[in-house]
Design goal:
single chain, Glutaredoxin, four-stranded mixed sheet, globular, Thioredoxin, transport, electron transport, protein-disulfide reductase activity
């Protein structure tokens, strides 16, 4: 948990993907997140959290369904969405912060 807090307390936006191994839509998000990272490079950090292995963290952020994406800046949650999000939408959301 403290490592997670350290990561999200960065000045640059941090996109957190709460996922599960058994989740079909979560698998669809992986290539999208890679493209977002390729497009934005060092402007963003992207981390994946397996809800089955990190239940306390998923509970803290009230993640009920997967995938759930949260965007943090300076430790504050600034955006959240459940389900698959398209690359262009993610890039524009991240760029707005």
């Amino acid at each position: 948990m403290s490592k997670f807090l350290e990561i999200i307390n960065q000045e640059k936006p941090v996109l957190v993907d709460f996922f599960a191994e058994w989740c079909g839509p979560c698998k669809m998000m992986s290539p999208v997140l890679k493209e977002v990272k390729d497009t934005l490079g060092e402007k963003v950090s992207i981390i994946k959290i397996d809800v089955d292995k990190n239940q306390p963290l998923a509970a803290k952020y009230q993640v009920k369904g997967v995938p759930t994406l949260l965007l943090f800046k300076n430790g504050k949650q600034v955006w959240r969405q459940s389900g698959v999000v398209q690359k262009k939408d993610l890039v524009s959301i991240i760029n707005s912060f």
